[in-house]
Design brief:
The chain has 188 residues and is mainly beta. It has two helices and 15 strands. The strands form three sheets. Strands 1, 2, 3, 4, 5, 6, 7, 8, 9, 10 and 11 form an eleven-stranded mixed sheet that branches. A two-stranded antiparallel ribbon has the order 12-13.
Length: 188
């Protein structure tokens, strides 16, 4: 392990023994070797030579190598050489995707203007298998079908997610009055 300008680099010449190891740093960590355990830092970089079997967490996580486990980060960047097997908990990739849609011309507007993108999960708490409340984001103008852009809509407790899916299907031109366990369409 070497410390260069506040950057801790874990290389092949460092060996770990014993049970699952956890590395925690308040600075930047770069993993250049195979490592089994959890890695947490303000900024974490898994280099092309790096392979982590465990959870990687940080304010900013950049992956060029391999992770066999989850990623938790406010900003996650996956380079073309990255390989991740596990859950990625972040919002930055969605934000970048929406920004790309917004920057891509399409007809008289952008791809975002002509799309409807749903981001979220069908489960509020996966450990308890609860389905409410669900924090969901719908982005895009739906080719003019979406009327309430830039708004926060709070549904009554226990509103089925199927109500939102029904509304999106109708906005996309599908002629239906039900979708799964929907009870009514939402006003979007």
């Amino acid at each position: 392990m070497s410390d260069r300008c506040g950057v801790v680099v874990i290389k092949d010449d460092l060996k770990f023994a014993g049970q699952r190891v956890k590395i925690v740093s308040q600075g930047k960590l770069q993993i250049d070797c195979e490592f089994e355990g959890d890695v947490t830092g303000t900024e974490v970089v898994i280099s092309e030579q790096g392979k982590v079997r465990g959870t990687v967490a940080g304010e900013r996580v950049t992956v060029l190598g391999k992770i066999f486990g989850g990623i938790r980060g406010k900003a996650v960047e996956l380079k073309s050489s990255a390989h991740v097997e596990g859950d990625i908990h972040h919002t930055s990739l969605f934000a970048k995707f929406v920004a790309k849609l917004n920057a891509t011309p399409d007809g008289d507007g952008t791809l975002l203007d002509n799309s409807m993108v749903l981001y979220g999960s069908g489960m509020s708490n996966a450990n308890d298998h609860t389905h409410a409340p669900l924090p969901l984001v719908v982005a895009g103008g739906g080719s003019g079908a979406m009327r309430k852009l830039g708004h926060h809509l709070a549904s009554p407790p226990n509103t089925p997610m199927a109500n939102l899916l029904l509304s999106l299907a109708q906005k996309a031109g599908v002629e239906t009055t039900t979708f799964g366990a929907s009870t009514e369409a939402m006003d979007l």
